[in-house]
Amino acid sequence: MDLSQLSTVLTEINSEFDQRIAEASTLSVIDQLKSDFVGKKGRVALLYRQLGQIEASLRPSAGELINAVRDRIEATIEDLYPAVRRAERSKTIASDVNDPTSVILRSYQGSGRIHPVTRTRMELEDIFVGMGFSVEEGPEAESEWYNFEALNIPKFHPARDGQDSFYLDLDGDDQVVLRTHTSPVQIRVMQSQTPPIYAVMPGRVYRRDTADARHTIGFHQIEGLVVDKGITFGHLASTIETFTKAYFGPDMNARLRPAYFPFTEPSAEFEVTCTICRGKGCRTCSGTGWIELGGCGMVHPNVLRAAGLDPEVFSGFAFGFGIDRLTQMRDEIADMRILTENDLRYMRSI
Amino acid sequence: MKVLLSWLNEFADFYGLADTLDGVIDKVVAAANGLGLVVEGVERVGEGLDGVVAVKVIEIHPIEGADRIRRIMVDGGMGSLEQIVCGAFNFHEGDYVPLARPGVTLPGNFSIAKRKMRGVESNGMLCSARELGLGSDYDGLMIIKSDGVKPGDDLASTLGIDSDVIIDLAIEANRPDANCHMGVARELAVFFGIDFKAPEILDISKVERRPLPDDFIVEGANSLRLAKFDLTKIAKDRKIANRLELAGMRSISPAVDISNYLMLEVGQPTHPFDGDKVPGKRVRVRVAASGEELETLDGQVRKLKGESDSADSSYDLVIADIYGIGLSVAGVMGGLSSEIDDSSTSMLLEVASFRSDLIAKTSKRLGLRSEASHRFERGVDPDLGDFAIARFAYLAGVMPEYIDVVEKVTVRPTVVLPKSYIAERLGMEIDLDAVSAKLARLGFEISVNESTMTVVPPSNRPDVTVAADVVEEFARTFGYQNITRVKLTNDRVGRLSSKQRRRRDLVNYLVSRGYFEAWTSTLLSPTDMGLMGDTEVAICVKNPMAVDESTLRRSLSVGLSKALISNLNRREEFVQLFEIGKVFSMPNQGELLPRESERLAILSFTREEIPPFALYRDLASFFGFYDQVVAERIEDQGALIGAGFIGLHPGRTLLLRANGAIAGVVGELNPFAIEDLTGVLPQGRVSYVEIDLDKTLFSITTSRRPSTPSIYPAADFDLSFEVASDVLAIELENLITRSIVGYNPKISLIDSYVGDSVKVLSRSLTFRVQVVSMDHTLTEAEIRSARLNAIEAIHQSGVGKLRE
After folding, report:
1. How far apart are CA B796 and CA B721, in angstroms?
2. Chain B interface disruption, residue of A142, A170, A336, most B CBs within 10 A
3. Which among B471, B517, B567 has CB closest to A118?
4. Which CATH architecture has domain B715-802?
5. Strand, helix or coil at B697?
6. Which tens digits make up the pLDDT trace of A270-321?
7. How does DSSP classify residue A330?
8. Do domains B2-46+164-192 and B415-482 have the same CATH topology?
């Protein structure tokens, strides 16, 4: 073989390569081309092996000719590679289609749910924490002293009628009840902390209510207590208002009207704008535009004294309302018993 | 308490507040609410009766083909009979019933027209009490029983019905003054700034007053008056009877009606005795004898409490004759033996005042709530006696013949407070003079000097005793809504405690893992825990509402098992629940309150079983207490039950110990225990974890510090051991971990095999051990030595043997 024959072969290789590369659209075809032309057993390698047939003095030139073709082919393939790879991946991805909604239940059950009452409790805690309050807790089984006496509710006080309590069968000298309200935690907080006290006390409470559509075994309250020097009724009214707007929304209002609780004086019921009609008047609010939410007032001097604080030095206010009731309002629950039925069909709907 | 607008209007001109009745009602309702006399309902009665007449039923005929309606011929005084079709069956020929003729509009805007039913013409409608707005009775026609009624008489005048507005007020326990029309009217009159006129009375100052001996009243009674009236001179008053009915009381007899009317009007309960049935014609107040029995007006024999019956120092009071024989339960209910009846001719009207707490206790003890006891236990104005008798005399139109009297001097409390106190407590200055003037109209005596204010509350306000009460009166009179809101500022940072944050994280962790938060009952049936295998005594409720809710739970497993089964019964396939709640056990020696601890329980029932230990280990590791809690086989079932963990599958459950104390269980519930409890045997394994959070999550925080990973390559080797069936994989895991010092071993169980090929011992466990050094690449020799150390540790402990 001489140089001209070699050139002819190289030209053939070049043109054949150009022809085939023009048609190449997949990586495997390109890989095949690479192997066919510049692979170990490819056309170009074959030529290198035939160099021996060429006169020795011409071999370097021949080698350069072959090198040039090899380099050109390799460079062409290198250049083409990324584009074809991109094209091929796009095609692969484009053709890889499924039905994402065809999830077999058994393979994925999903997440659970927080109980609606817990959710309300968390929301309330967050709001009061944001207002600078701490969250305090206390026992569910309480002595009569904490549940009643310390809260200015002596035995046979008419106020005990409304919250008939469960008494526990224990041997001790004093009676123990399942707490009928979260208020005993107020006493415990005042005993264990020095003012200023800013605390809310959520928790489960128990009353011997008659069994009806609203009866659940126990329910939940949240109670707030602020004690410091110079705390006033004006502060109470403002705090109730701040809470109302934070929880229900900026266009909602609160109002206070006189009421009676043994542990506060002055006492008030607090009402908020009806969440259903937004104050226009509807069946839920009996046309008044307001719904009753809870009770509040200035901590009675006897309560401060019972907790070991001097009412001449400190004053405070307290408020409380039902967490379950707020849950009922939010979720428009018709029958509260659904909350204790642990019915997964209901819980999944939350 | 139901009050009638017409009655209130006798004390002040409320009708004059607005041009229309609706306007008046709106104003009165708003004012009452603002004063804390909360309006629970407003009902307009006796309206829409125009044109309704009384008719006499003459003939009743069936209608062919109709068995629910009949053709009635009535005499309406028109000269000829009128034909009405009627669907009621509760009347007979000769009865008088109400007829609304065509053209009449009944309450609720219901227009009556002539119409045909089954081809029979009906000239109007015969009415029930409810259709006329006169009551709730809907069972049939209203039967008119008034004396002297004639066909065609106007119904309203026959019945003596005046249209009225009933306002239902919720009177708080601290407002005894508002338990009567006079009190409510006075509050409202002061609020509106209109004149208040006291009810008219007869002048009884000339009536003979006969003092009774001081010992005719005992401690617990403040005063006793006995006014004698000639019953034969007291006639029935239709207006009084009607008002009583509208206010929710039955009309009984003229004297009893006036007594009740007086109570609703001025708040003083009184009791009329038949004078001829009271030996000696005098009564006294005494303490009941222990176990004394007395038959009350309702025909029930009441057993009374004496002074020394129990540690409680209270006692019942009895009104007795001069020989000591009990006649009535003081302040609560009269006795049957001295009751007024049709043949009575003389009456002794008892007007007394009692200590409110005693009446409250008696009423509660006897389970007997009367209108009188309701008022006495909240406090009746002790100075009302003579006024009440004078008003009774006016209403009866008869002067009393004499009045027996004994009373103690009562002292009205005086409250002295710093002048600045009210402003300090309200957070704003209010016009004290203007508010004081209003309070003066309510009977408060207020005097102010430079630094102090002195307040003597009226005798009908026993609730006002301390400065805080005075603040409330000023605030209420000033108007709560008029008090300026003062922004509460403080420099405190609110934050959940570490315990509260961890509890929240726990909830979120479990929810994200597919668990639903349950709320099961704290109170269980006494047999529930026994059925689940509990042998300990639980704390009982002395006064449960139902047996099913009489025992405090010692474990959450009962509630969750019930929740599981009820969900399976609802055809749920997978049940994954958790609950965080309190459990209770007997108090520690010398302590009053039960031991209460907060628990977490996780229950899962799924087709692809979730290994409970994997769940527990992940949870405990995530929250950083895994390393400090030991899991072990249950050796002592009794100790586990003692600690309040019940219903567990003994062979598939581990006990958790924290600081030596039992702190939880991980494993499965015993399916047969669930079957015993619920009657349903779950068809599958019930994974269960119950942990005492106080002993774990809330008290143990991680001791680990985050560590920087080694930059050198790790190496691993596998080890298979034959072990006995009761050996736990974690025991080997722990031994291996401890045997490899300094190489940060990471150990995972990669195979657990039980089969015939394992001859002597029954189980084979294969662990993969990964080791790495912080400061160099481990050599073959080092790895080999680590492996040998691990094998040696297992062999020495005797829990397993290397499989070659």
Report:
1. 13
2. A170
3. B517
4. 2-Layer Sandwich (3.30)
5. coil
6. 999 988 888 888 887 877 888 899 999 999 999 999 999 999 999 999 999 9
7. H
8. yes
